[in-house]
Amino acid sequence: MKSPAVNRIPRRGLMFVVSSPSGAGKTTLCNRLLQADPDLSLSVSATTRKPRPGERDGVDYHFIDQDEFLRMRETGAFLESAKVFDNYYGTPKAQVEEALSSGKDVLFDIDWQGAQQLGEIARDDLVKVFILPPSRDELERRLHTRAQDSAEVVAARMAKADSEISHWAEYDYVVLNYELDESEALLQSILVAERLKRTRQIGLGAKVKAIIEGS
Ligand SMILES: Nc1ncnc2c1ncn2[C@@H]1O[C@H](COP(=O)(O)OP(=O)(O)OP(=O)(O)O)[C@@H](O)[C@H]1O
Ligand SMILES: Nc1nc2c(ncn2[C@@H]2O[C@H](COP(=O)(O)O)[C@@H](O)[C@H]2O)c(=O)[nH]1
């Protein structure tokens, strides 16, 4: 689904955060948004988790060991970082700064801890969306049908689902992910509306002046 063009006026880049309990569908939805929208760039996280079948280093994640992760954290290389399900995850600063300064919006697939940390440093540019599954049973079904984690890992993620869901009210928007096309369209609507916010369109004053002056 191609996203509509809204970039006629220069504007500040958005930091678009998508969080959910594990298995609700945020990675699938983020990939759809990225495919449809050339103005959106993914923040590729670093993690100490082992790659799942098919995951590519540098594309899905930067897969690093714990020593390297802790060294990067120590030297301030992360915008935010957190321990999630016994693994470390972090957002490398450099790529986000580069994407924002080249006029892209940046998409973050991160948990509530990361969303809170980004909120402390980038409130005005941050848009936070929480994805909910239609039900707990459906969440479990999705984790099983993804078929990429052991039964123990799925059970551990389900055991954390309620506490992750409890953060839903910290988000600007909540999308119930019943059906992928519908959820993708809802996320695109949020992106379009946020991009059109007057306060983000830094070139608007000059455009209005040009319209008034007839130039
Ligand atoms: N609306 C939907 N209807 C049916 N299946 C879905 C839907 N959304 C996602 N799925 C499926 O659910 C599974 C989990 O999705 P996904 O990996 O995107 O979840 P996630 O929220 O990113 O999980 P994690 O936090 O563990 O990375 C995948 O197999 C995906 O294809
Ligand atoms: N705080 C952060 N959370 C992150 C980051 N990258 C991913 N995540 C979240 O971790 C869980 C598990 O992801 P999985 O790929 O192992 O299933 C999920 O909620 C992700 O959103 C990050 O850089 N920081």
TrEMBL record:
| Reaction(s) the record says it catalyses | GMP + ATP = GDP + ADP
Residues that, per the record, bind ATP: S20, P21, S22, G23, A24, G25, K26, T27
Where it sits in the cell: the answer is:
Cytoplasm
Q: Which UniProt keywords apply?
A: ATP-binding, Cytoplasm, Kinase, Nucleotide-binding, Transferase
Which intervals hold domain Guanylate kinase-like? 13-192
One GO cellular component term noted in the UniProt record for this chain? cytosol
Specify one Pfam family: Guanylate_kin
Q: Does the keyword Magnesium apply?
A: no
* Matches recorded under SMART domains: GuKc
Return the protein name.
Guanylate kinase
Q: Specify the species.
A: Aquisalinus flavus
